Amino acid sequence: MSDAVAPRGRHGRRVLRAFRGPDPVEVASATLGLGEAAPPARAEDLRPVRISLMRVALASGACTVLPLASLLVVPHTGAAFAVDQLEVRSLMMLWAISAAAGAFATLRLAPHRRGSRLLGSAAVVAAGATLASGFAATMAGFTAARLLAGLASGVVAVCARPLVLQIAPPVARARALALHHGVEMAVLAAALGLSGAGVVAADLSWRGVLFYCGLVATVGAVIAVTLRAPASEPHAGTPDLSQGEQLRRVLSVRSVSPLLLASLGLGVMWLPLFDLTNRFLASSWLASEADRFRAMAALAVAGVAGLASLTARDDDRMRTGPGDVLRSSADLVFLSAVALVIAAGVNVYGISLAALDAGFAGLAVARVRVDSALLALVPAESRGQALALATAASLGGGTVLGYVGGLIMSDRHGWSWALALMAAAGVVAAGALQRAAHEAPIDVANRVSEEAAAVQRRLRPPTDEPLLTCRGIDFAYGQVQVLFGVDLTVRQGEMVALMGTNGAGKSTLLRVISGLGTPRAGSVRFDGQDVTFLDATRRVPLGISQVPGGKAVFGPLSVVDNLRLFGFSLGADRKRVDAGLDKAFDAFPRLAERRNQAAATLSGGEQQMLAVSKALILQPRLLLIDELSLGLAPKIVSELLEIVRGISAAGTAVVLVEQSVNVALSLVDHAYFMEKGEIRFDGPAKELLHRGDLLRSVFLEGASKGLQ
Questions:
Q1: pLDDT-based confidence at 522, cuts 50/70/90?
Q2: Angle at 557 (CA atoms; ends 554, 563), nearest 5 degrees
Q3: Is 492 helix (H, G, I), strand (E, B) or coil?
């Protein structure tokens, strides 16, 4: 439809949209809650789901009394079990390590798919272990119960937040997380206040405190068991990933690594700050036990107050500019670190407490923003894995470092210097957030682009789905980026030439397609499935095989052993392997003559024949060949070309990396030309000869003269 006849006005624009179909970018932005095209946040977004969010938060918040129990029983369990107080204080570090182990274990359990069931089971275990620790008769039993409670609470911490995001609309992500953390802080404040009152006023024993905490956790477990996750659409075309593949997928998002470092720094300041406040007030201000309990409860109340300040404006800022939100969070964490330094150095008791509360309120807001950014920037099906890493970093790394560093610093220089150490961790976290802010806009663009591509695939007829689709591939070796936004499409049975100068990134692109390299951005889809993060060993059974240039055979093995090794992925299907061997020997009689000869003793051409025989055995759907003709005599090249033509005629799609235009033009109709890691040309191969800008490349210019 031309602009001259395009309908005008609001109704006309609606007709035009109906004619053209939905805009994939607008649909993607609305789905993700990211980008200018996403709808703005409103105050009433959370009203329909507030009760559900409160139930999840209460179930998760009940587990926050578990570390609290360890804090409260420290002065009492030493005498009860007749052990050194330092050994008792190490229980909190053991809890943190076990909680991190529980968080990391959920990587394998795919919490995004069955998070509500895991949450309920883990909450039951946490409540039971807390009650069991109150009945412990020995220090070993007490420690084992606390470790089990920590393991379960780590699972709860990971499973609860993805459930929050399933319930809440995308445009209210920050407020939903703020409500979740706020209820957790309220539970913690209530537990601290009531436990403190019981210990101080009623002389409640350490067993009584644990029974009380266990009862609170039991209430949370009952709520957790009754939770049901809302129905969500399955992630079609995404195979189940192993633990290593899940890690690669999450860490491929640019801003995840700095956000994990920020989680580590915030973990140093978060839970250890309660215990450190208790000890700091006792040693530096000689505060009574009642005052210390009130101060710890005041920290939790300050956290609730900070979280209450988050409004719809924060969601709008996260939608339109996650980088700006992370920069402001970095400033907030830095100010919290300054507040801790003031609390440690000021000589006025009230100002010291106020500084601690202000610092903790800033940390509470920063934690919500870090979680919100992390969950917005990773794919929806990877949120559980991202949170598992963040929780493991915060609890296993940050909490342990905070306790160990605080104890060492306090023993040598006093508790004021321990607070200063926490402030230093805040500075590190602030720097990590600044780096994440720099990477976040790129990740937002990638997320919207991936979702828009998914929308386009849903709109496209199934018959139009290519066999292989590479979209926006970025790849780097360390800090050196090699591929920049590479797009490549191969259809069923198609032969494609991938050409370019040395160092253009051709072989690297083949490595990404075959699974030997993980891209920093972009996606690889094969036969409708997203295989971007699948291991190479899992891609071979799907039908992807590669013949690498110069390293395609195992030199010490005989020819027949090489061929049998190529068929390893076929498993026990010996008939298919033997049929492939016969086919290879029929295609290459020279290999039959040298079947028992070591591959290293073959000529270069014979080794290349042996390498191409892999395709005759595996019969892949996609064959990647790197430098077929390099260093070979023309007669050998001609024989190999005939075999490759036969493989293609049998239905196998072929991607051939080739520097010889003569070879490429004799084989394929479609070609991609790469230069400096980018696709410079995509079209019929013979059109390369009419592109003056490309003919200036030495090997193309020489080949052009020869063909003319």
A1: confident
A2: 75
A3: coil
Residue 644's closest CA among 582, 575, 577, 588? 588
Look at residue 82 and give its three-state secondary structure.
coil
The mean pLDDT value for 471-489 works out to 89
Least Cα distance to 595 among 604, 605, 608, 584 occurs for 584
In the block, tokens 């072989």 appear at 507
For the beta sheet containing 653-657, the strands, ordered from the edge strand earlier in sequence to the opposite edge, are 544-547, 622-626, 653-657, 495-500, 670-675, 678-684
| 14-32 per-position pLDDT tens digit | 333 444 456 766 666 766 7
Amino acid at 112: H
Q: Which two tokens stand for residue 656?
A: 């051939």
Helix 173-201 crosses helix 349-377 at what angle (to 10 degrees)?
140
Distance separating alpha carbons of residues 653 and 264, to the nearest angstrom: 47
Read off the pTM. 0.81
How is 635-657 classified by DSSP, letter by letter? HHHHHHHHHHHHHHHTT-EEEEE
For the chain, the first-to-last Cα distance in angstroms comes to 43
CA distance 390 to 382: 12
SS3 354: helix
The per-residue pLDDT for range 98-123, each reduced to its tens digit, is 878 887 777 766 554 566 788 888 89
141-148 long-range contacts (CB < 8 A, ≥24 apart) are: 142/77, 142/81, 143/91, 143/94, 146/70, 146/91, 146/94, 146/95, 146/98, 147/94, 147/95, 147/98, 148/98
